What does this fold into?
Amino acid sequence: MIDTFPPFASPRSAPPPAEEDLRLLLLIRHFELTLLRLFEAGQLSGTTHTCLGQEYIPVALKPLLEGDDFVFSNHRGHGHFLARHTDPHGLLAEIMGREGALCSGVGGSQHVYHRRFLSTGVQGESLPVAVGTALTLKDTGALTCVYIGDGTWGEGSVYEALNMARLWEVPLLVVVEHNGIAQSTPTTAQMAGTVAGRAAAFGIPHHRTASTEIDEIRAELALLVAEVRSASVPLVVEFATHRIGPHSKGDDTRTPEEIALAADHDWYTRYAGLFPEAFGRLDREMRELVERAAADVSARPPSVWERP
Amino acid sequence: MTRVSEHLNRALHDLLAADPGVHLLGEDITDPYGGAFKVTRGLSGRFGDRVRSTPLSEGAVVGVGAGLALAGRKAIVEIMFADFATLAFDQLVNFAAASTSMYGRPVPIPLVVRCPSGGNRGYGPTHSQSPQKHFLGVPGLHVFELSPFHDAGRLLETMLALGRPCLLFEDKVLYTRRMYEDGVVDELFRYEVTGGVARVFLEGAAEPDCTLVVHGGMAHRALAAMRDLLLEEDVVCELLVPSQLYPLPDLPGLERAGHVCVVEDGSEGGGWGAEVARVLHPRLWSTLRRPITLVASAPSVIPAAPHLEREVLVQPGHIRHAIMEALS
It folds into this structure.
């Protein structure tokens, strides 16, 4: 992976994030770490994709989204979900196929539908669907937010959808988590040109941020997102981010140097160093919360599905 | 006399007028063009934004339809030629159909994808196919076909009420034919529609020598074969035309048939006929006298030149020949 973003693009002197935000960041972090631990212990089946290092993106977007908005997520969607609905028990039960699962254990990690939050496992597939929902939200003040990655831009459906989104002026917020690597393929080996150039080709406004500071990101995006709602226009927001964990479970083929470089951008170690006391307290609290949730969900009976 | 395309156009007008939640999307469907086969004529002028001409993006347009459906609307998407429905395969299979059950509870996706299909018009290999078979056996996906017997308005209502994505195949030659009315096909044959299945029969005839099962676009060719078989071979046939091709509905009266023959316009191999036979064989095993006869188009691309196209696609003569061979 070729890293083009300097570590700590945001000032190191920035104030700590609000406790509520830090709590959510840590909830997602410990949720993902717990999944990897459960996998290693043989307690999870199938596959999962964690968002380690990228947690701050849905946390930053949280207050910018409203209750009537649709949110579409992808294979790496646990953070997106937890920032939208703080229900780690329901999500973990879904992933583990236990009672209380959000979707009866049918969808698993990549296919969750809960109150206008929907994730799917096929890259790019959700964008046209998102345009359809956004058509119904035109001029209502609500919007459809869809998370995609840099790898998703290889899919033709992305361009068909962006074309219609601009043509029909629908309130669509496309959030690109550009972590520089598509599974094992560096972006430089799978994308010609840039995300900005591609958005520009459709006349769609594009904003790129390398910030990992939640308040800074919100300040950058607040007016832009408000414009999506008020003017019913699409917007592409590109986050230059870093996936510090593997694509799924232990399938990281990056060199130790590349992984270390990605880890340099981790908000977790940064906040731990900057605000050790407050951070340590919340870190412990959220770790224990997720540990309790894992113990609770693991002890539940299997989920039941009434097959149609 | 109402042509099938006019009948369908009227049904769409009535549906959009009755239900403000219905949207229609497709390439070139707005006026003055009104769709490649004029089925959507007059709709955009009457219903405004609910009728949208789209870019050439079959996959995404079906996705937009699914998004509208997910958000509580109802969507009808026109694919200009059924051949292009392959471009929407992912949206249909992995999103629209899967979503109705993969989230652990029924999620309604009222979406109808209309596909003008079939050949005998000289349009050549990529504009003449009957690709119904590629969409069979997909959990959550229903396959229907227009016929000259079934009321199109009722059919559209039925499909949207299912809350599951449906493909509606519409034979392009059928568009130009008239809708049958009042139970009369011609001076020989009568018809009735029960449980979504049209039954065409010879009035006063006892048990048929052969019952044909066909999809809507094959009805006229089957009728032509039935007429010849009756008048020239003294073979009495009955015809069943289900509007729903998959999952196959109950087909009435087959226990008393001397023989069953399924005819389809799709290319031979892995087809609808095999699916019908799969359902019927266990049910009819004790009454069947011989294996169900399957007639399909040749396993070939569909040539543009009319004389070559005729050789590939099922014609009345093929049906007659297959039935005589089976009964001999």
